[in-house]
Amino acid sequence: MMKNIRRIGLVGAFVLAGMLAVQAAAARALVVGTGASTLADAKAAGTEAAGLAKAALGGESPKLVAVFAARKQLTPELVSGVAEVFEKALISGCEGYAPLTAAGNFADQGHEIKNGVTVLALGGQADVKLVADVVRKEDGKDGFTACGQRIGDQLKAAVTAASGSKLIFTFGNQHVGSNQPYVEGLLKALGSNVPVVGAAAGGGNAKEIVKGELVTGANVAVLICGGFKLGLGLSGGNGDLVAKADESLSKAVKAQPGKPALLLVFDCGGRRGELFKQKKLADEFVRMRAIAPETPLFGFYGGGEIGTAALAEPAKGVGFSVASAALFAE
């Protein structure tokens, strides 16, 4: 009888140790929730998408709430709807041709959609720091470089102090042609080895959300750093457009073992229009999901992409491309 009790005690100890190890691993992981809505009412759409993202977090407190939406729906009402679910100061995002999540790429609405809101809620042990700036009149012809450098300067101390992997996820008021100077400014401040991924909302009067406030002309950068591993992909040009998306996402997802906790994807609005003409827009999404069928997916179709094909290569601003980043929680 005493031997059985000892055996049960040992088994219980091993089980407890295993449970604690799992809990500790979970505490280190990125915790991700996403949601999407096609409701026509912007406030209701924001609330619905945010509610789905919150439910997927499973009680975890978010450190970032990112919102991508159809141009006509990025309104104060949309922000208000998301703020019914999440703290307003956590909310940042932008407009674009169409957002993108695991729920779909809104292919049935064509090139530039009318109704579509997506929300990413990011929690876990990773550190998150968000900053924003604008191109200023006094910057002159080097405005986007100067804007990028100011943003990089604000992030430099956090990048230097950070342990583990680092990723800058950026969006806002750039376009093809101005996204490269913007990235050059970022990397001038931070160094060329800091990975950057993102896309342009569009130039001119494209709208952004910065910490719960609706603005125009802003560039936003989110530094995510901590106990995760990273895979990157970038592919563009003419040819088989669906295959180009496959190439970018596959490279990111296959860069590390295991299943990613989050897959960020930034596709080109021009590519979207061409895919729609070819009746292959839905096919692109099917291919994306096949690459990482159980991974939360988040991004949008914008007016210029930022990324790199490998960790050892500096980020660049491009067009007619797909930039991706896979985050693997340790």
Task: Explain this structure.
- The structure is a single chain.
- By secondary structure, the protein is of the alpha+beta class.
- The protein has one domain (30-330).
- The protein is built from eight helices and 17 strands.
- A six-stranded mixed β-sheet has the order 1-5-2-3-9-10. The protein has a six-stranded mixed β-sheet with strand order 6-11-7-8-15-16.
- It is globular and about 40 Å long.
- The N and C termini lie far apart (42 Å).
Major β-sheet profile: 6 strands, mixed
Strand content: 25-35%
How many separate structural domains? 1
Shape, principal axes of CA atoms: globular
- Classification by helices and strands: alpha+beta
Strand order of the largest sheet: 1-5-2-3-9-10
The end-to-end span amounts to 42 Å
What key attributes describe this structure?
disordered N terminus; 330 residues; 35% helix; 6-stranded mixed beta sheet; alpha+beta
SSE blueprint and pairings:
Blueprint: H1 2-28, E1 30-37, H2 42-57, E2 64-70, H3 76-83, E3 91-96, E4 98-101, E5 117-124, E6 127-134, H4 143-161, E7 165-172, H5 179-190, E8 196-200, E9 207-210, E10 213-216, E11 218-226, E12 228-236, H6 241-253, E13 262-268, H7 269-277, H8 281-291, E14 297-302, E15 305-307, E16 316-318, E17 321-329
Parallel strand pairs: 2-3, 7-8, 13-14
Antiparallel strand pairs: 1-5, 2-5, 3-9, 4-14, 6-11, 7-11, 8-15, 9-10, 12-17, 13-17, 15-16
Helix pairs in contact: 2-3, 4-5, 6-8
